[in-house]
Amino acid sequence: MDFRDPTDRTDRADRPDLVDQHCHGVLREGPVDTAHFGSLLTESDAPPAPGTSHFDSQLGFAVRRWCAPALDLPANCPPDVYLARRRELGTPEVTRRLLRAAGLATLLVDTGLPGDLLVPAELADAAGAPAHEIVRLETVAESVADQGPDAAALPGRLTEAIAEAARGAVAFKSVVAYRHGLALEPDPPSAAEARAAAGRWLAERERGGRLTDPVLLRCLLWSAAGTGLPLQLHTGFGDSDLRLPDADPLLLTDLVRALQPTGCRLVLLHCYPYHRGAGYLAAVYPHVYADLGLTLGHTGARARAVLAEALELTPFGKLLFSTDAYGLPELYLVGSRTFTSGLGELLDTWVKERSWAPADAARVAALIGGGNARRLYGLVDG
Amino acid sequence: MDFRDPTDRTDRADRPDLVDQHCHGVLREGPVDTAHFGSLLTESDAPPAPGTSHFDSQLGFAVRRWCAPALDLPANCPPDVYLARRRELGTPEVTRRLLRAAGLATLLVDTGLPGDLLVPAELADAAGAPAHEIVRLETVAESVADQGPDAAALPGRLTEAIAEAARGAVAFKSVVAYRHGLALEPDPPSAAEARAAAGRWLAERERGGRLTDPVLLRCLLWSAAGTGLPLQLHTGFGDSDLRLPDADPLLLTDLVRALQPTGCRLVLLHCYPYHRGAGYLAAVYPHVYADLGLTLGHTGARARAVLAEALELTPFGKLLFSTDAYGLPELYLVGSRTFTSGLGELLDTWVKERSWAPADAARVAALIGGGNARRLYGLVDG
Amino acid sequence: MDFRDPTDRTDRADRPDLVDQHCHGVLREGPVDTAHFGSLLTESDAPPAPGTSHFDSQLGFAVRRWCAPALDLPANCPPDVYLARRRELGTPEVTRRLLRAAGLATLLVDTGLPGDLLVPAELADAAGAPAHEIVRLETVAESVADQGPDAAALPGRLTEAIAEAARGAVAFKSVVAYRHGLALEPDPPSAAEARAAAGRWLAERERGGRLTDPVLLRCLLWSAAGTGLPLQLHTGFGDSDLRLPDADPLLLTDLVRALQPTGCRLVLLHCYPYHRGAGYLAAVYPHVYADLGLTLGHTGARARAVLAEALELTPFGKLLFSTDAYGLPELYLVGSRTFTSGLGELLDTWVKERSWAPADAARVAALIGGGNARRLYGLVDG
């Protein structure tokens, strides 16, 4: 499969229109120094092994491979050369170059992360492509709680706030995998349970507690399901705040079944190393979709192999593309290129060995790269 | 490894004699329409993603690749062309062509699935190869219960019926993975436990309850173990009736240990995505065997990669071949071809890089394709 | 990546200096017969499938591939030819040849396994490379208990004995995965808990009970953490004494977090089939390292594929090399060659497809092959 140069936007009909169905803002003021840049290349909050740097990973190598040419440097140039050039060009120019080179037709931006980040309209401007907002449920809940409702009022306020947020968003996102884990009671909480949980949480909040109560987290999921928007769920690996076994998407099985009658479509994000299990859920439940998000950049030269595993059971109408880029614009380009090159090589192989017809490969590339997301989110503008 | 054309049955000595150690009947009257055909290509009971069809999966593509030529069509021809030709030829001719092309020397048929399916003798006739019966334990139990025994008599009747069924069968099969999950108490239930469970189940049956009681399911397994026949267990993925984490074959560890002194040989079917864990069990327990059954067809162009993973720890005398074909004769040919082409390419690679001697590759191909099954089931006729 | 012939020790600067960071003694008197040899090729304590031998596995084939040439035989020669030549040369000569051919610069030897095995000094002599001792915590505990302390004294004695053992060792090793499983309470036991557990164990010991009490096992881990030496933990597959799901390194997550403030560095050994999860832990926790040990030899022709998976998330400064050789000197050579050939081919591929720069590949090979271990264990002599 030969993906055309995604920086060439003149001939849309002939190249995959990539829809980045889950990404975040990048820093308005680029990383302040090498250590800061390195810290944005890892899911760890700790220093690298002595004698090495956070560039010594598949992601670090992938940044040097894919991003250096966009800054007029040879691929795989040393980290210090790359960072010097980055400083020379300045953050706005670097951001613009890397986002343009990513070749995205549309961005769906989760705005729930902290930091002085570009907002969707600014990302859209840098990328030259429209951006839509994904609303993070737990952030909505924190905002509602900040308004000081009592425990009796809180559950209803959450539902109202989520319905309100739905009007300006294309999807919801939940990080319940971080806050509690994915092993949740499948049913919607009763009103009494919700009130009791609200009371507990409001009391904890006075001591600084973030929202980790599974009853309230389930309230958020069920309220989101009621809006008709797709619901994205973090699954699989992330930073050290996560207990990885609690983020196995198969833990969602009962909730997936419980939500099926509501019509709510669920998008399992990232999934690694549980992407085969996610593929199974996407295969047997009509409302389940999956992507590899964070996984592709972080596995770098191995992204093709991981994509191949995701393409074992996941129906071709159910796999989505995203970069999960955050903080560094590099993560947009790396996410895009590991996807297009990885999928392209994979499909080429299958065509070459006559497993797939060329037209099938082209159609599947278009579905995964953007068609599935356009259909799922009802996108009409990119 | 070059597997000879399996449709050429004139020269048995020179080609792998495939023993399909786990398969099912195919529809006597072919699928009534395109949607029906599609529903037999998926483990889901729901429609495909909008704008796609159930052909848009590795299995769907594999059917077009491997089956179209057997119906005189070019490989990878479009679904509608394929289905039109299928209607033109008629179900009996399609069935005969596809089963013959699968190149099977023997079929071991699990007859416990519903539907108007060809019985083993009819499959044998279509395939041109002998067929033997595998008896599904849960089906035996339902038949016994239909005869109206009281709770005190039921456990003994189950044991008798299983012993009786053993006389005409080559193996037993259990779907306890569906009915309860594989996390079972390892020991045989006491007589009192069995009676109590029988009472509960007979009461539930009046309200339509199928057999899900873990005590009775364990009675079935222990009764089967007493017959000396191999016992096949569904493990790994299946349809949406399954909770996949409950089907991890490693959950069987304690039961595997408890059954070891009985001499009962256990066959772990399908296994995906837990096939590496299944390989470990086959490596350390002398009475455990594994196959990939359902997995090979459903992963299509990726079958070779999955086979490679199964061949990491599984001893070469312990891996078995099956198609798990059901409903569509296509699944016989796809199961056979994904296996022979996948294994053939894998062994070729290892020989080419000098990891394996050519004679070793040929011997291992013969063991996995049929030799291991012939030894395990005591087959003498094909 | 082209690893130079590791038997050529004349030019150290140009080849990876392999540090085998986890291995064991080999039999002083070679295996007595073919069956005995075979039993040392498997993690099972049972006979192979009828009609096959324990050579019929990836490890068996890898022995024939890699070891036959070191005994002047063609690669992949038949098992009986190999074993005849082995007898002809005699155990000492075979041991010397195979250990030399493994091209090890340093050996870190876990001396806690039973049998009439070469001690580290003898292994060093055979390998022509220095050997250092790894002390197995559970063996220390048994020795302490043999001295007859009462329950009140035992916990303190364990701590003292571990501190004493640390003086002559480069690392500790725990087999808590076998004795209890890795799902442990994360905190150090209180003195009262430890005394109570000591009393229970000392009573059990009179009836022959080995140390399986989780409280005492945690005492050992925390005492080892206090010494400042790295702590190696068996994770992943092993022999049939293990329940594999209990050896998933992700079960250690809470303990990993609890130990982080102590500065104790943790080394996850073997890891298969949970090596991707181990890579995640190594990526997000600064004190976690991983190796594939036992895995590479046992997966033989598939070692490259497994290494590739481990290199998805594991930072390049965190992956280590070991053979986990035990009993047979063949396991040293097989472990070494599957690693160097597997990693070499993998890195060659990434360089060839321009994912990695050649200098990066060379540097990463040197880190994984030995540099990471030298830094971690403070090695200065090989």
Q: Structural class of the helix and strand makeup of chain A? A: alpha/beta
- Tell me about the largest β-sheet of chain A: 8 strands, parallel
**N/C terminus separation of chain A:** 22 Å
- Can you name the CATH architecture of chain A? Alpha-Beta Barrel
CATH class of chain A: Alpha Beta
Helix content of chain A: 40-55%
The CATH homologous superfamily of chain A is called Metal-dependent hydrolases
Give the strand line-up of the largest sheet of chain A. Answer: 1-2-3-4-5-6-7-8
What is the 3D form of chain A? globular
Element-level helix/strand string of chain A: EHHHHEHEHHEHHHEHEHEHHEHH
CATH fold topology of chain A: TIM Barrel
Oligomer: homotrimer
Report Rg of chain A: 21 Å
Number of DSSP-assigned strands of chain A: 8
Strand fraction of chain A equals: 5-15%
Q: What's the number of domains of chain A?
A: 1
Q: Biggest interface, which chains? A: B-C, 35 and 36 residues
What's the overall average pLDDT of chain A, rounded?
94
Number of helices of chain A: 16
Which stretches of chain A are poorly predicted, pLDDT < 50 over at least 5 residues? 1-16
GO molecular function, one term (chains A, B, C): hydrolase activity
Keywords (chains A, B, C): Hydrolase
InterPro entries (chains A, B, C): Amidohydro-rel, Metal_Hydrolase
Domain Amidohydrolase-related (chains A, B, C): 180-379
